[in-house]
Design goal:
Order of helices and strands: HHHHHEEEEEEEEHHEEHHHH
Strand content: 5-15%
Strand order of the largest sheet: 1-4-5-8
Shape: globular
Bound molecules: flavin-adenine dinucleotide
Structural class: alpha+beta
Length: 394
Amino acid sequence: MTELSEFRADTRAWLEANCPAGARGPGQIPWGSSTIPLENDARLWLERMAERGWTVPTWPREYGGAELTRDQYTVLIDELKRLDARTPLTGRGVNYIGPTILEFGTDEQKARWLPGISRGEGGWAMGYSEPGAGSDLASLSTRAELQGDHYVLNGRKTWTSDAMDCDYIFVLARTDPDRPKHQGISLILVNMNQPGVQVRPIRLLSGASPFNETTFENATARADDVIGEVNAGWTVGKRLLQFERSTHAGINISGSQGGRSAESHLAEKLKQYVPSRDGRLKDPALRERLVRYEQNGHAQRLTQKRVIEELEARAPGYASSAVKLTGALHAQEGDELLLAAMGSQGIVWDAPGLERRESEALRTWLRQKSLTIAGGTKEVQLNIIAKRVLGLPD
Ligand SMILES: Cc1cc2nc3c(=O)[nH]c(=O)nc-3n(C[C@H](O)[C@H](O)[C@H](O)COP(=O)(O)OP(=O)(O)OC[C@H]3O[C@@H](n4cnc5c(N)ncnc54)[C@H](O)[C@@H]3O)c2cc1C
C-alpha cells in the first residue's frame, strides 16, 4: 500500500466512524457565529473535526490544522464527498481572514487569532464595500486614526453579509488620507461587540435579509490588530479577495469542503416537472441543455482539482477569478434550467397554504443572481482575467 492509499483507508474509516448521520447531506454548516445555535450533530461534527485539525486541514498544527499535504487534502475532500459529509466549518474566518493572517500576520497575531478561528469561535464579517466604493474599492473613505495603542474608526460600510450575527469584522480603512488612494489603506480586525459599531439590515429581492449597513462611530481596534504593514492594506486586502474568490470557486485549500455538488441532484429534480422516457428527458432542447450543464459541471470540478494539484500556495492568484466566474455562471445556468422545467409552477412566491420549499427554486434563482456581483462583479473578473491572466493590453 502506498502512503497515500493508506491515508485514504484511514481517513475513510475515521470519517465513517465519526461523521454523525445529521452531518451528512444538506443541513446546517457552522461558520463561527456565537449567536446562532448549533444543532447537536453539527456541533459534534465541528468538535471532532477541529480536534483532528481537519476544519483547516492544511494549516500548521500549532494553529489548529493537521499539516496535510495537497495530495492528502484532495483525498480528504474526496472522502468527505463520498460520504456526503458536510463541511464542518465554513465562513470568512477559516476561508478569508484565517489564510490572510497565515500569510501576512506576525507570529503573535497568528497565535492569538488562528486557533480560535480553526475551532469556529467567532463569526467574521467583511468590511470592504462602502456606498461610494464597490468595484473601485480603493476609493473607500472609512477612517482609522491612531490614538496611542489603538485605532479609532469612523465610516460606513455597506453590503456587510451576516454582520448581525458576527462577532468580528475585518475592515479596510484609510489610515493615511494624505497618500495616494491605494497607499494609505490598512486591514484592521475589529471586535463588533462595542457601542461604536452599529448594524442595520438591508432587505433583499429574494425575501431574505442577510445584508447590512455597518457604521463605525468612534469604534476602537487594537493597534496591533493591523494585518500586514500599516498603509499596505491594499496588497493584503487584495490577497484576501483572492481567498474569497477561491472559496467561491472551490479551490481554497484552507477549509475542508465536503458535501455533494448541487448539480448532482438537478436531473432528478427536472424529471419531477417534465416528462421523461427510459430515464431521459423527452424534450430534446431541455435534454441538450442538461447534458451541456452536466458536462460543464464535470469540467468545473476537474479544473478545481487540477488547480488544487498545481497550487503553490493556499489559493491561486489571479486564476481564482476565472474559476470563480465559471462556477457562478454554471450555478446560474442550473437555476435557469430548473425554472424552465418548472414552467408556471416555478413562479410561485407566496400564497395561502404554500410551503416555503415550493417557492425555493424562484428564491434561489433570485439569490444566485448575486453570484456574479459578490466577491467582485462579472465585469471586474473579466477585466482581471484579460489583464492579469491573459496579459492583454489595456
Ligand atoms: C451577495 C453579496 C454579498 C456581499 N457581501 C459583501 C460583504 O460581506 N462585505 C463587503 O464589503 N461587500 C460585500 N458585497 C459587495 C460586493 O463586493 C459589491 O457589490 C461588488 O464589489 C460591486 O460593487 P458595487 O455593488 O458598488 O457595484 P459597482 O462597482 O457600482 O458596479 C456597478 C456596475 O458597473 C460595473 N463596473 C464597475 N467598474 C467596472 C469596470 N472597471 N469595468 C467594467 N464594468 C465595471 C460592474 O460590473 C457593475 O455591473 C456583497 C455583494 C453581494 C451581491
